[in-house]
Description:
The structure holds two protein chains of two kinds. By secondary structure, chain A is an all-beta fold. Chain A contains no helices and eleven strands. Chain A is 0% helix and 57% strand. In chain A, the strands form two sheets. In chain A, strands 2, 4, 5, 6, 9, 10 and 11 form a seven-stranded mixed β-sheet that branches. Chain B is mostly beta strands. Chain B is globular, with a radius of gyration of 13 Å. Chains A and B meet through strand 9 and strand 10 of A and strand 5 of B.
Amino acid sequence: QVQLQESGPGLVKPSETLSLTCTVSGGSISSYYWSWIRQPPGKGLEWIGYIYYSGSTNYNPSLKSRVTISVDTSKNQFSLKLSSVTAADTAVYYCARQQSYYYDSRTEYYFDYWGQGTLVTVSS
Amino acid sequence: DIQMTQSPSSLSASVGDRVTITCRASQSISSYLNWYQQKPGKAPKLLIYAASSLQSGVPSSFSGSGSGTDFTLTISSLQPEDFATYYCQHSYNIPYTFGQGTKLEIK
């Protein structure tokens, strides 16, 4: 059974960089896409970006200038860095696996395994 | 970005009721639509992918339908554990976006 676990500071100061790591256990990080998704308290879900195990990435344009996602296959981990944070970045951050399926000549994805989430608060 | 709009935003129902939640996309997304269930303090759980395919282990009381811009999630007979918030999400292009959520409460 694949399990994902987020780790990192729960409190970040405004203008600093938020850094989180997701550790994958029970399966290999290889051959999958891996995403970060966040949820401000009491609000909906926002996709941040994904990384393929090979290192290729794709980010939400609304966050692209501040986001970096990286992968360390030797540790079965991938990481998120979000720079210049403000109070608006306060949220529960989830990591998730993207499972692929083939439909209508395309490869599409859904999020089948999620971490439990970690609350990151931006405050001085 | 493709906007996903769910209706209703909240819904009160009783155990045993049949419930339908609607998700509308701002443009056609074929069948690239997934549904998730989220309980308080927990991560979302995948229910349906590709608009109508039931994820392994999900009760058959859940079903999905639709294509293009209009989609529905139906729960045929509500159980106590089904009271939660439900989200739709498209994977048609980047950025993936979610609906605002439908909170299903006990009447």
